[in-house]
Amino acid sequence: MVDNIDIRILDILETNSRLSYAAIGRMVNLSTSATRERIIRLEENKIIKSYSIKIDNALIGKDIETIILMTARPGKLKILTKKLFEATEVKEVLSVMGRYNLHIKAIFNNTKHMQEFLESFIPYGESTTLVTTEIPISRLD
User: CATH number for the 4-44 domain, one of 3.40.50.300, 1.10.10.10, 3.20.20.20, 2.60.40.1670?
Assistant: First the structure.
């Protein structure tokens, strides 16, 4: 069971997951040990799945962030998703309903890198498959 304090802890962790148990505890009026126990319980119950960081990819030479909409050939969805999860360029894969099977968030150094990546997945998409790439021009944080 998740209560209001757990929700507040989750909100705090979403904003800054590097805060100490003591700092979080002060924010929700709990002791350090009580805060730690709650966070461990949230992790054990799979409410907290992982911790992550936000990276400014342009500052590390990865200038192209894309959203790729892709349709797999019949019978190829399983191997396509396996290969996508193995690709270091891929940051997120969602199974979606509608015209496309997959919604893929990927990051590339440049357009040539992106083209090579997309071409490597041609065997898993139908010849008439449309691969739509949308390149964000700015992040609204």
Answer: 1.10.10.10
